Amino acid sequence: MDIEIPEDLREKMTRPRSFERFGTLENLLRTFRPGERLVLYCLTVALAASTLALLVGVNSAVSVIVPAAGGSLTEGIVGPPRFINPILAISQADEDLTQLVYSGLTRALPDGSVVPSMASNYEISKDGTTYTFTIRPDATFHDGTPVKASDVLFTVQAAQNPDIKSPRRADWEGVTVSSPDEQTVIFKLPHAYAPFLENTTLGILPKHLWSSVSSEEFPFNPLNTHPVGSGPYRVSSFKTDGTGAAESFTLTAFKQFPPRAPHLQKITFLFYPNEKALIKAMNAGEVDSMTNISPAGLASLKRTDSVIMHVPLPRVFGVFFNQGHSPALRDASVRAALSAAVDKNTLVEEILKGYGAVLNGPIPPGVLLNQSSAPNSSTANVAKDAYSEKARGILSRGGWIFDEKAKVWKKNKQTLSIALATADAPELSATANAIAEFWRASGVVVDVHIYPISEFNTNVIRPRSYDAVFFGEVVGRTLDLFAFWHSSQRNDPGLNLAMYANAKADSLLAQARATTDRRAREKLYGTFAAAVDKDQPAIFLYSPEFIYVVPKALEGIKLGALITPSERFLNVADWYTETEHVWDFFTEPI
Fold it and tell me: pTM of the predicted model, to two decimals?
């Protein structure tokens, strides 16, 4: 069908287009003098710049900077991993990779709270003995297999198996685990135990890969170095040397990790034989970050693009007295004098290079809700000889007489002489020798015995064969002091190194571990700490700090009260190096 176009419309359609208005503008510009044209051009540029600035300002007003997916981190560690396995991990390398590769029913946060992870929720019975967990429907392992209740049962039962010899076995003694269906896990405790919830952060093993492995073969299975977990990162590649020891592991973000995948897309671990080699690699730019470095080692750090992060560790280092082994230590004045003679601030400054906190009791910093982190002002800025003078005064009032000729303290034909034992770790031996000098300045005869760590545990700690021992206690985030101070723990394998026995203290410790209300539990521990302060079974010296060297470009790190160095990764999903602008209608700002 033909359509006839009118003549006048056809003429307009075929007429060449003209730019009469632009031509008019051009003619007008020709009438401007050069100076007027320059002014017009400047005004035009200013108008364009103002418009652009206005648009940028409007965009900034309605947008925020948020973390973006991307970036990587290369971290150096001393020693290679052997067991990337939540129930076998022993070394720092083991624990670091296990923390990233595996996840449990719950996960701890830097603020000390415990929240659901592979579980969507949980319930605790009123009597505190039954914990019921519901597994989230989107929980999956790195190979795509769903996480089920049977995986949790398998993991806990493997940890409980004495033939596997798991370091986590003590956490699960007496606990019964069952599952009415594949989404529900029930733990039954023999009695209420407030810190139990933290045990459920144990990484979950995939039963479909491990169930055919015998107890004897468990430590030797390739899955220990080719792990499959459900954590925020999965192993994508690794390299070994000629002996089969790991040289590096590369981990990539697990996209299905709930509630979202990590921002940082890749973390590579490189392993070094010792601290000196690690610091050399850091200075050479081979690695971006390193941890567990001694305060003395930081003096060799030359990187200017790094930040040194440090937070208190919930650890208590002190001198623990064995009054049954040394008659002199049964005298309260002796214990008080030995405590008064020690300049704790000097120990922190000279041994820890300032990376530590002075302690005056059995509770480390960072674990109580309202605990002050301020330094101990009672011993700050005190003259060096004031400590020895105070100690001498305490001994004199306690009936001890200083023999100027023999240079010893005596009382009832008894000479004040102490043997101080510790292990051969650099900071332990340095501190023990410094303590001995403080005591000698007060006229106390002191012998320092330093043992290899294996001999120290076997021949000194376990048989309680010492007058006084300088050592450290790793106190958990939930502050369970039962193993360190209850009278039932005086003998091996208990950890009551001071051989402390006090009926009131025992009662307080038993009540505290069964009290689920955190404030009520901390009140009980406060009363307990007062009892210990009165009895003086130990000298509490310091709590060291965790040191982590990271690149300045790495953001989002939050370090709370860490139990182990691997817990620096508690909020690893929030770490980032890349950012983007997003309108705040769609997201929350950083």
Answer: 0.81
